[in-house]
Amino acid sequence: MAFKKVSVVGLGYIGLPTAAVIASRGIEVIGIDVSQKAVETINQGKVHIVEPDLDMVVQAAVTMGKLRASMTPEPADAFMIAVPTPFKEGHQPDLSYIEAAAKAIAPVLEKGNLVILESTSPVGATEKLAAWLQEQRPDLHFPGASTAEPNMYVAHCPERVLPGRVLEELVSNDRIIGGMTNKCCEKATELYKTFVRGECISTNARTAEMAKLTENSFRDVNIAFANELSIICDKLKINVWELIALANRHPRVNILSPGPGVGGHCIAVDPWFIVDSAPQEARIIRTAREINDHKPEYVIDKVKAAADQFKRPVVACLGLAFKADIDDLRESPALDITCELAKANIGQILAVEPNIHELPAKLQGQGVELVNLQQALEIANVLVVLVDHKPFKVLHSSDINTKVVVDTRGIFSR
Ligand code: SAJ
Predict the structure, then answer these.
(1) Is 408 in the pocket of ligand 1 (CB under 6 A)?
(2) End-to-end Cα distance, the chain
(3) Is 266 a catalytic residue?
(4) What is the pLDDT of residues 353-384, one digit of tens each?
């Protein structure tokens, strides 16, 4: 089957680049989103998120007439669901966006369609998706959800792209194709082969779900190790950056970097899905989450101690995004730390974030001022490096030698 028309449901950080890349291969793509603003922006050939080169690819696809966005689903050969999967109270996965997407596309599904879940999901979510679709469309036969021979195809193909390198990784990364049946794997592989240069590796849906959660938990555990080391090193008066550089000279040691905590919508969230599925067994995974979640509190205490040295503390928080050189503030420890410092009334709080142009809602009404780096350097007596954005990494010691610096990213120690 050749895919003539593909529908991408959810036009966020994953869905929009995926839609644009598929469209750039000459396939007609219709993107579905619940946000009217996002739909209008995309239809003008513009983007509502910051990701290198995405604006160019979207503009080209829209101009060529291969990509358009809508709030209303319509028939297509394949549907790719890329909606958020946050967690609820008590770190339980919230599948309501997937359920809503299933209900939205169900009326337009036709026999032989392929439905792919790309959203990072707890084990069993793809089976649930098939069941929700079956409930809505008793006239069709979904794998695992109907006793009749399936005439629909369902697979979980988790996205694995790194924010900041999405367009490159979308094409070059290997893809895990978790089909509900072998036929589902074949169909999904056929679709991914239209734009993926990496290998497409088939497995079942449950293993694919767990593989994605495992990748992000592996990273979380390793960052927790680095964060724990940084706290131990403070206590023992050792420079953790020098220590890690030395230890990493060993051929089988590769320690990651400590930071102000772990942010983003993936690594700070996904390990909880494993903990929720196996609470007794997932001990290291849970502890890593707790260590990383505790790090912002530790940084706040350090900044308070630094501010205490001044009669009129002016604290400049360098960076609000969850990591370097992006504008994404989701689950950002830098944003949380800045917000808590403002609430703690320790002095004047300045925020420097070169990738955004207005103060985030969370900081509004807290007395925080968004300034540029130069202004911050002129008036702050405490500098808190929260994100290693490029403009911060080129600072010289002469820029900072009159200030007390809390450097959570080690930009002055490398
Ligand atoms: N961080 C550290 N120290 C490090 C590395 C990262 O503190 O040494 C922090 C970052 O500052 C950030 C957080 O961890 O706050 C996460 O950043 P990241 O660059 O490790 O990962 P994400 O969340 O941008 O993207 C991850 C990627 N997963 C893996 O590398 C295993 C990406 O491939 C996934 O597609 C993405 O999650 C996702 O969508 O799940």
Answers:
(1) no
(2) 53
(3) yes
(4) 999 999 999 999 999 999 999 999 999 999 99
